[in-house]
Every structure is written in C-alpha cells, then in structure tokens.
Amino acid sequence: MATITPEIPVLTDEAPEKAAAPKREYPGALVVVEGIDGSGKSTQLYLLKRWLEIGGYRIHFTEWNSSPLVKSATRRGKQRRLLTPTTFSMLHAADFADRCERQILPLLHGGYLVLADRYVYTAFARDAARGCSPRWLRNLYSFAPVPDITFYFRAPLDVAVNRIVAGRPKLKYYEAGMDLGISLDRAESFRIFQERILNNYDQMIETDRFVLMDGTVRVNKLQKQMRQLLAEKINLTHFAPKKKK
Amino acid sequence: MTRNGSSSTDSPNGRSPGGSNGHAKSRARKSAKKGRNGNSDLLSRFYGIPLPGVKPEELSGSLIVVEGTDGSGRSTQISLLTEWLESEGFAVQTMGLRRSFLVGEDIDALLAENTVTRMTLALMYGTDFFDQLERRILPALRSGLIVLADRYIFTLIARAAVRGIGRDYLHGIYEIALRPDLTFWLNVRPEIAFDREFKKSQTISYWESGRDMSLSNDLFQSFIRYQSLVKREFEYLSKRHGFIEMDGEGSVSDVNRVLRKRIASHLGIRSTHYKPSHALQHLWR
Prior knowledge:
The complex is a heterodimer of chains A (245) and B (285).
Chain A: E1 29-34, H1 41-54, E2 59-63, H2 71-79, H3 85-109, E3 113-117, H4 120-129, H5 134-140, E4 149-154, H6 157-167, H7 186-207, E5 210-214, H8 219-233
Parallel strand pairs in A: 1-3, 1-4, 2-3, 4-5
Helix pairs in contact in A: 1-8, 4-7, 6-7
Chain B: H1 22-38, E1 62-67, H2 74-87, E2 92-96, H3 104-113, H4 118-142, E3 146-150, H5 153-162, H6 167-173, E4 182-187, H7 190-201, H8 219-241, E5 244-247, H9 252-267
Helix pairs in contact in B: 2-9, 4-5, 5-8
C-alpha cells in the first residue's frame, strides 16, 4: 500500500499582510467602492461615473453579480435554497472570474478607468460572515487585479439597515442571511448578518488600504470629497478625451 | 515533497490548531502521520479545514475515487464495482463531473459554446464538485454508504493546471474537500485513449483534445499533446497524493480483479469473487 502523504499547501490563517501595492502591468486603473447595503456606495459611484462620463473619459462601470453566465444557476440555487456557504461563494467567484477575464482585465490592458460597484472584498466580508475560511476566500480570489483605490463607505449599522428596510417591502432569503439560521425574523437576521459583514469590512481597512468614507455625510459633499480623492490618487489625464489634432 | 520544493507552509494535514508557529506545525504534522497510520485522526479526512458545518467524525462511509483520462475505462470499472459491492451488501452512491443539480447543465451549455474562459470554467467545475460533495456525498457518507467517484478533484486540478492556473491556487480551493480513502489512477497512453475514444464516438471532442489551447490544428496531434500534458500533471498528483497507479491498458477483467482486491482489503470483504450479471456481461472483455 502506498503511503498517502498529501501535501496540500496550508497557508497561514492569520489576517493577510498589507496587500501588495497594485502592480502596474497595464495602463488602465481600477476604482472600487465597498461597504454594506445602505452605506451609500452605489449612489456615490453612480455620481462619480456620471461626472467622468459627462467629461468624456474612457471609463467602464461594472457591478458585482452582473454576468449573465451564472444567472440561471444563481436563480435556481436561490429559489430552491440549495446554496451552502461554499457553493454560494464558488458560484460568485465563477461569476466574478467571467467578468474579470472578459471585461475588467481586457479593459485595464486597453487603458480604461474601470469603476467597480463591489469587488472581491464583498466576498471576503460576506462569505466569511457565512462561515467560509478567510484564508480559503483570499486564495479563491487571488487572480483578481488589486484596485488602485478602494473607497470604503461606512455608515453606522442602524443608519444603513434602516435605509434598506425602509425601502424594501421584503428582504430576500439569502440577502437577509436566513441560511445561517441566526433568527427566524428576517429583519433581525438581516441586521445581525450585516453587523458581521460590517465587522469584517472594518478589519480590512488597514490590510487592504481602504479609503474610509463617512456614509452619513451629505451626498453632494461626500461626492466632492470622492472626486478630490480620486484626482489625487489617479492621473485622470490618462483617461481624458483625446484632443483632435 | 512537492515538486516545487516543500515550503514551511506545507503541512499534510490542515492547519495546526495553535496557529502558525513552527513548533505547533511540526507537532501537528507528526500527529497527523500517526493519525493516518492508526486511522484515528478524524481531521485527516480533510486536506485542510473541513467544509463549513461538517463534522468529520460523522462520516462513517468510504470514499473511493477512480481517476483516469477519457478512454481509460473508468466508467466501465465503476459500473462493475457498483454491482460487485451491491452483491456484497454495500450500498453505493456515485458521483462524477457535471452531475450536480446546481450547475451541471450550465457547464454543459458553457462547453457547447466554447467561449468560456479558463478561470471561469475551473470555478464552475469547482461549484459543481462542491454541490455534489455537500448535498450528495456527505449525506451518503454519514449514512455509511460507499461512494464511488468517477473522477474527483484531481481531474479538475490537472485540467486547470495544464491551462496555466497555479497548482497551489487549485490545491487551495480544494483543501476543504474530503480526502478519499482510496484513489485509483487508471493510467493509459494517450494513443490508446485516442483509439478507444474514437471507436466509441467516431470522433474526438473539442475539449478532450484541448482545442481551446491551440496546441495543433490536427485533431490527432492536439489530442495526443493535450492528453500528454494532463498525464504529466497526473504523474505529479500521483506522487503528491499517493494514488494507486494501475495499468489501464489491461483487460477489463484484469483491471477489475486488482480493484476488487484493494477495495476488499480496505472494506474487510473476504471474498473478491465476482462474475458480472447478464446486464453487464458486454463490458467484460
């Protein structure tokens, strides 16, 4: 009998070291917004996108979970409640890989400014809240290009949760984290789930160089800050419309 | 030893409970070794941290994997083994690629289109694998069944690795998978696999010949090169994971006899006598 000596590498389970500075392998740039539901991130990214669009910049906007590739599987899994923390995570990773390989990477190589509403940090925060190992998640998404800037929109839990609950008649099963069996009450389950996600996000502020944005600041004021920070960090002239000679 | 040089982070048996200092690790490694030989370390049923929510001690069944390229005779052997085990009174559950309810059909559709990229395909196969593992295999093992896997994580790792996805990355994904009790590798030369596959379907498929890798415009050349690359990955995996390597070019009955012998000794079955029923007689060559 052959001795069975599998040697699957085991990385450390500690929080990751400071993420490496983005490698400049492409002329494009990647801008990411992250934060829990109701933190105001999508509104702010929308406004940033409009500003850049109107100015004629070379940009592309991409959303988490938007690829048609895995839509049928996600729908099937969610409707029938078949998803486990692992398959939930794998399916989203497959979806992200499709977007990454067919949109994000080609556009970065083509010199675009790519704006992403949620990125891999959403998976790190949310799937870890479901019980997936943080180390396993980091490995799973290690093919993703590191953002040039990640805006982290942070609002107090109550503010964020109330924004969502007020606007939605019914929270969806997975959205509310009902699969975790925390509480039979959807609103209560949602709140606890979001709290776990918020804590996971907070831990990444340092390790992943998040730029902290206060989600309680007035929309137009916050947008002004965001535009300033973007212009400081990224040379926007690279993406500006070319002047006709 | 891994081929790329065993680093200090390599541990055969998941994470050490005390974190990452060197002492804890070497202790964990020692106890893991003892555990395997003494068959008492339940954690060694997983490569690393078990899947969320799984208690290894509940899994009383056995997981037996048959790996091998297309045309290696895997499916034939699994049909025969199923019949033999059932006749011995063991309940059998099978698994294979693209058989999950969650994404099995979606992968078929992706393969038909040929537009899917390598990472997406690798992760869709991974989703398919974990859906079957969690919703079919683990419940079967909890009920004490014998699970016969027609391919396992090794094919998924090999196929992705030949397409340039890192081996460590792939092993990292599957470190939460269940470690098989026995893994058989039916090894056949690519030329023999080609003959068998061609005879079976009168053509050679796009994916089996690795056409997405642009190895050659000639289908035969492409098939041979692709299968040779996969075979090389398997040689590496065989060393790393302790496969029971078998000559897949032997007759069906010869290969089956060896498989029965190894499985019988693992499960404590005394007799390995078996004659296929009338329904399976056509496979017995």
